[in-house]
């Protein structure tokens, strides 16, 4: 059993508009049998935080192309993307590049 | 397990560059990004020492990064340019007034003088008023046409030699795709050009120093540098057509990250068979702006607004232009056509 973990989520570049305009969210992911990875985090976000138009945030089981993900201030492409295992106190940032230049 | 920077091999890498696949630390990324913009500017000879250059500033990520990098490179490499910010106020409550606040902060942060020209002073119409008359379907046509000319008019007021805009690699690739889909061969040929020459007195030359910079890198540059930018969608529904092209492009990019540069290169290398008819650029009879018709698009749209015939200028009503130009009355049938309310 994995203990619950507390992480910080941030949405920016316009992605915050899908979350009531709120940029920072402190959340606790509940206990579950396997460790939490980013793929499961996306499902959790969809069920618990996403307020509107999910198609602007997720596509398939990943984020919509054009949304950048940073884990502890590093590009998630360097961290294993969906397979990254979340740790207590991690900071995950989602930035939309799709909003106005 | 942190990945190390492939450039300095010392610090933790913070991003994987879409263009090269290299993993870089923050400092090496800043350095690579700025150097590439400098390379673009130098190799395309975008500026000459002593020039006055207006930076088209919207408060969004692209133009904020552009202003920051232009200021920095101008000092680092002694370009000898006199830089200033030029913004257009379309008159959209709750959207443009907020983004203009960002530009005003940029004015302080970068110590660059700012000039704002508004649709209201140039055309006598704000976008809010235009939308009231034309509705939400074609308002982006008005906004796009008016903005292009507004920047030129502002640039002439400021007596700048050039305008630079924040168009990035993704924007250019998108425009290539859109012009292919529309079959617009004239625009397709022009849209990949890094700079436009002066096309007559009413048009100030423009250039795109960020033409080869990927959107991902622009956004991350702004993020890591903590630049202050504004990112809310225009409240009058964004250009849907561009939206499709953008989504398609992002899907392509997620399969192969070089697709953006590949599309730009195909656009650049396009050659048009001899004998293909191209529209001849002349000038507008009323305002002197470049136009392939007797009246430029902006004058036609404006005439439509002022006469309460908003459909004028949307779609093909070219044969009515001479009537408008000579202030002849329109027939009842023509009026009905241009008024029709399926906006
Ligand atoms: Zn952009
Ligand atoms: Zn480094
Ligand atoms: Zn005109």
From TrEMBL, chain A:
Pathway where it operates: tRNA modification; 5-methoxycarbonylmethyl-2-thiouridine-tRNA biosynthesis
Keywords, sorted A to Z: Cytoplasm, Isopeptide bond, tRNA processing, Ubl conjugation pathway
Cytoplasm among keywords: yes
GO cellular component, one term: cytosol
CDD domains associated with the record: Ubl_Urm1
Transmembrane domains' residue ranges: none
Localization of this protein: Cytoplasm
Main location: cytoplasm
Protein family per UniProt: Belongs to the URM1 family.
First and last residue of the signal peptide: none
Function: Acts as a sulfur carrier required for 2-thiolation of mcm(5)S(2)U at tRNA wobble positions of cytosolic tRNA(Lys), tRNA(Glu) and tRNA(Gln). Serves as sulfur donor in tRNA 2-thiolation reaction by being thiocarboxylated (-COSH) at its C-terminus by MOCS3. The sulfur is then transferred to tRNA to form 2-thiolation of mcm(5)S(2)U. Also acts as a ubiquitin-like protein (UBL) that is covalently conjugated via an isopeptide bond to lysine residues of target proteins.
Protein name: Ubiquitin-related modifier 1
Residues bearing PTM 1-thioglycine: 101
Post-translational note: C-terminal thiocarboxylation occurs in 2 steps, it is first acyl-adenylated (-COAMP) via the hesA/moeB/thiF part of MOCS3, then thiocarboxylated (-COSH) via the rhodanese domain of MOCS3.
Pfam families, alphabetized: Urm1
From TrEMBL, chain B:
GO cellular component: cytosolic tRNA wobble base thiouridylase complex; mitochondrion
Top-level EC class: transferase
Pfam families named in the record: ATP_bind_3, zn-ribbon_14
Organism for this UniProt entry: Solea senegalensis (Senegalese sole)
Protein's UniProt name: Cytoplasmic tRNA 2-thiolation protein 1
PANTHER family the record matches: ATPASES OF THE PP SUPERFAMILY-RELATED, CYTOPLASMIC TRNA 2-THIOLATION PROTEIN 1
HAMAP family: CTU1
Domain tRNA(Ile)-lysidine/2-thiocytidine synthase N-terminal: 53-246
Record's keyword terms, sorted: Cytoplasm, RNA-binding, Transferase, tRNA processing, tRNA-binding
């Amino acid at each position: 059993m994995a203990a619950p973990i507390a992480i910080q989520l941030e949405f920016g570049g316009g992605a915050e508009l899908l979350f009531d305009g709120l940029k920072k969210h402190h959340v606790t992911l509940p206990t579950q049998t396997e460790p939490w990875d980013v793929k499961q985090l996306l499902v959790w976000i969809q069920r618990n935080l996403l307020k509107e138009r999910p198609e602007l945030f997720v596509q398939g089981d990943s984020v919509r192309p054009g949304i950048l993900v940073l884990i502890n201030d590093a590009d998630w492409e360097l961290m294993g993307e969906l397979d990254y295992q979340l740790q207590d106190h991690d900071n995950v940032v989602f930035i939309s590049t799709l909003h106005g230049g | 397990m942190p990945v190390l920077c492939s450039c300095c091999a010392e610090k933790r890498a913070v991003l994987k560059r879409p263009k090269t696949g290299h993993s870089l630390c923050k400092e090496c990324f800043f350095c690579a990004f700025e150097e590439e913009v400098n390379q673009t500017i130098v190799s395309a000879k975008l500026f000459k020492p002593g020039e006055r250059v207006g930076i088209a500033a919207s408060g969004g990520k692209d133009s904020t990064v552009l202003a920051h990098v232009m200021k920095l490179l101008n000092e680092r490499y002694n370009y000898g340019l006199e830089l200033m910010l030029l913004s257009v106020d379309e008159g959209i409550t709750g959207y443009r007034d907020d983004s203009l606040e960002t530009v005003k902060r940029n004015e302080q942060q970068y110590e660059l003088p700012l000039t704002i020209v508004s649709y209201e002073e140039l055309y006598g119409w704000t976008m809010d008023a235009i939308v009231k008359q034309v509705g939400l379907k074609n308002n982006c046509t008005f906004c796009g046409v008016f903005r292009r000319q507004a920047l030129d008019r502002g640039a002439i007021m400021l007596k700048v030699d050039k305008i630079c805009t924040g168009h990035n690699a993704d924007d250019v690739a998108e425009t290539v795709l859109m012009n292919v889909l529309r079959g617009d061969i004239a625009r397709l040929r022009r849209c990949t050009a890094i700079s436009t020459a002066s096309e007559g007195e009413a048009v100030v030359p423009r250039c795109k120093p960020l033409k080869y910079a990927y959107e991902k890198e622009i956004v991350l540059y702004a993020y890591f540098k903590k630049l202050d930018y504004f990112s809310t969608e225009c409240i009058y529904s964004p250009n849907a057509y561009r939206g499709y092209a953008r989504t398609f492009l992002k899907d392509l990019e997620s399969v192969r990250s070089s697709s953006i540069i590949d599309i730009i290169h195909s656009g650049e290398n396009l050659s048009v068979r001899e004998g293909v008819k191209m529209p001849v650029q002349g000038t507008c009879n009323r305002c002197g702006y470049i136009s392939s018709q007797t009246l430029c698009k902006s004058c036609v749209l404006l005439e439509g607004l002022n006469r309460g015939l908003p459909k004028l200028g949307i779609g093909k009503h070219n044969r009515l232009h001479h009537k408008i130009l000579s202030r002849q009355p329109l027939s009842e049938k023509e009026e009905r056509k241009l008024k029709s309310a399926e906006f």
